[in-house]
TrEMBL record:
<comment type="similarity">
    <text>Belongs to the CoaE family.</text>
</comment>
<keyword id="KW-0173">Coenzyme A biosynthesis</keyword>
<dbReference type="InterPro" id="IPR027417">
    <property type="entry name" value="P-loop_NTPase"/>
</dbReference>
<feature type="binding site">
    <location>
        <begin position="12"/>
        <end position="17"/>
    </location>
    <ligand>
        <name>ATP</name>
    </ligand>
</feature>
<keyword id="KW-0067">ATP-binding</keyword>
<keyword id="KW-0418">Kinase</keyword>
<dbReference type="GO" id="GO:0015937">
    <property type="term" value="P:coenzyme A biosynthetic process"/>
</dbReference>
<keyword id="KW-0808">Transferase</keyword>
<comment type="pathway">
    <text>Cofactor biosynthesis; coenzyme A biosynthesis; CoA from (R)-pantothenate: step 5/5.</text>
</comment>
<keyword id="KW-0547">Nucleotide-binding</keyword>
<dbReference type="Pfam" id="PF01121">
    <property type="entry name" value="CoaE"/>
</dbReference>
<dbReference type="GO" id="GO:0004140">
    <property type="term" value="F:dephospho-CoA kinase activity"/>
</dbReference>
<dbReference type="GO" id="GO:0005524">
    <property type="term" value="F:ATP binding"/>
</dbReference>
<protein>
    <recommendedName>
        <fullName>Dephospho-CoA kinase</fullName>
        <ecNumber>2.7.1.24</ecNumber>
    </recommendedName>
</protein>
<comment type="function">
    <text>Catalyzes the phosphorylation of the 3'-hydroxyl group of dephosphocoenzyme A to form coenzyme A.</text>
</comment>
<dbReference type="InterPro" id="IPR001977">
    <property type="entry name" value="Depp_CoAkinase"/>
</dbReference>
<keyword id="KW-0963">Cytoplasm</keyword>
Amino acid sequence: MTMVVGLTGGIGSGKSTVADLFAQYDIDIIDADVVAREVVEPGTPGLNAIADKLGSDILLTDGTLNRSKLREAIFNDNSLKNWLNKLLHPMIREKMQADITRAQSPYCLLVIPLMVENNLQTMAHRLLVVDVDKKVQIARTQHRDQVNAEHVQKILAAQASRDERLAAADDVISNNGDSSELATKVAKLHQQYLAMSLQYK
């Protein structure tokens, strides 16, 4: 059995940057966002079910999912959004579980943005939270996504609070500083996780 470290954090916290630093140590990364795309690739039961429900015009000409059209469809329709979540969440979870069993590295990283919100830390042996000050989160997200502060505030309001995430965490990386500090923190945690992973062999 491979030790699973769950990685989460709010929007703009730097989850991807942290995951990339762990990947430099040849650690297998299982990313929920990537898996969510995989379960709706052409030919998958996920995409077939969506096309059956919403019609073939939910597909692009190459047969892939028209994501912006789907976003638009569920934006104003809560029942459709719930249907989609019921369809895809079990598929995503199953695929992540399968990827975990295939992991080759001493431990693997399970990256789920809404891990605490969906109580998915149960899939991991440890939970690592990337933590940042709210004002840093807002500034970073505004800069990255070219959106206004009000838009970011709305996203933050829909996510778990900083306190809720920290209460669930086993380990915390503070990411208010620069990237060189981050690399040092990841190096230290990597050694810690390597030592801990021995008990799962």
